[in-house]
Amino acid sequence: xxxxxxxxxxxxxxxxxSPIIIFLSLLIKLTSEGHxxxxxxxxxxxxxxxxxxxxxxxxxxxxxxxxxxxKDPYRFxxxxxxxxxxxxxxxxxxxxxxxxGDMSFVxxxxxxxxxxxxxELRTKKGIHSLTPGLTGWAQINGRDELSIPxxxxxxxxxxxxxCFLLDLKIIWKTIYKVVKAEGVKH
Length: 186
Prior knowledge:
Elements: H1 2-31, E1 37-43, E2 49-55, H2 81-86, H3 94-100, E3 104-106, H4 116-124, E4 133-135, H5 137-140, H6 148-161, H7 164-180
Parallel strand pairs: 3-4
Antiparallel strand pairs: 1-2
Helix pairs in contact: 1-3, 4-6
């Protein structure tokens, strides 16, 4: 049922947001060098690697590490990068990942391939058995403000309590937090 919901809802949202996706693609192309999309290797279900799509919000040549590990992340942002991140519009292309089955709407956020500490903790707790999500329990409980062990504790809670009603609650709270731009550092 979850996969059917993911595929149907992502397809619907892709149709609804297609004008915004086209507009943002043009805006990114006109204001910075490089591709419109940033494609990164992420850790998926069972620690498999998949290509995750985002709108590019960082300049070409930015080191491929989590943003909080950059010395001065603001200097790497493109002219529209801060807006894209603050509004979470940089995440819209992940609808393609959901349609493909690489991601779900709700699950632990996919780790970068080189976030070894996060991957190891998630594997120890069985979280690697979940399909990563566009949003998740950790996302609505702190997002960028959480340390890795706390993030993993929230992921473990989701693993043990996952159900359709919890997913709907997480989606609803995500919409609320995105509108308020709550928990976004960069």
